[in-house]
Amino acid sequence: MRLVIEQDYAAMSTWAAEHVIKRINKFAPTADRPFVIGLPTGSTPIGMYQELAKACQAGRVSFKNVITVNMDEYVGLEPSHPESYHYFMKSNFFDHIDIDPKNTHLLNGLAKDTTAECQAYEEMIQSLGGIDLFIGGIGSDGHIAFNEPGSSLASRTREVRLMPETIRDNSRFFENDLSKVPTRALTVGVGTVTDAREVMILISGSNKARALCKAVEGHITQMCPISALQLHSDSIIVCDDDAAVELQVKTFRFYKQEEKLAREGLAY
Ligand code: PGA
User: Fold this and answer.
1) Most CB atoms closer than 10 Å: which of 136, 154, 168, 254?
2) What percent of the chain has pLDDT over 70?
3) Ligand 1 center to residue 35 CA distance, Å?
4) Which of the residues 148, 169, 195, 240 is marked catalytic?
5) Tens digits of residue pLDDT in 12-41
């Protein structure tokens, strides 16, 4: 696992955006050979999306031949609901880049048969040849997408019930009214994320510091779903200083030194 510790949220977002730009441009996607990217919602990736939109508008990257696959969606919210992830992706990202809307994929939280919807989503990912780069955030309890503690590390796309902590964390988007937060969601599984050829996780703020520490220094356990990343051969966590405060000093120094060497072209 690579851990990139940037000074603050802005620097973390810029690093993540530049990494995505580098990957897409290196891949040089075409209509016949598109780049497939997994995307998160939430407050953490907004800065990265803004940087990517700027880069796209400046002609530094194009999403014409990029296919997106989102992580999750609430059950029961209309796509036009301002807190639905359909709405989030359109207003925070898709409306500002040159992507073809038919290349964007999100789970349908209104599906009558959610089992069939989730199965079809997995099949769609397979038919695309898998995901080249899956980007994600984490919750303060170490969840990834809506895979709460206790989720199998081999889990696939499915319907889940949200934990009280997640409902509480997300209530800030629903006028701080717990009763307005959906209690169920459709989500890719931990296994769906870690099947991607590369995974990049963004973590910002001291409220995520314990989860980051567990992900990097802790055991691999279903009680911290993000810890599954330790088994991935090509994974990066990009965080800010605030999120790194629970790491041991020796861990912090090790990764800082690794990045210094990487930037000098002496590692990887
Ligand atoms: P956040 O959510 O980016 O809004 O903190 C991340 C998550 O819960 O996965």
Assistant:
1) 136
2) 99
3) 25
4) 148
5) 999 999 999 999 999 999 999 999 999 999
Our answer to whether residue 122 is catalytic in this structure is no
Coil, helix or strand for 136? strand
**β-sheet bridge partners, residue 158:** 187
Residue-wise pLDDT for 183-219, tens only, equals: 999 999 999 999 999 999 999 999 999 999 999 999 9
Q: Three-state DSSP class for 187?
A: strand
Q: Is there an atom of ligand 1 within 6 Å of 44 CB?
A: yes
Q: Which pLDDT band holds residue 267 (cuts at 50, 70, 90)?
A: low
Q: What is the pLDDT of residue 15?
A: 98
Q: Is 72 an active-site residue?
A: yes
Catalytic, 234? Answer: no
Q: Is 143 a catalytic residue?
A: yes
Structure token pair of residue 158: 């499915």
CB 149 within 8 A of CB 141: yes
- Distance between CA atoms of 193 and 125, rounded to whole angstroms? 11
Phi, psi of 188 (to 5 degrees): -65, 160
Catalytic: which of 6, 51, 72, 195? 72
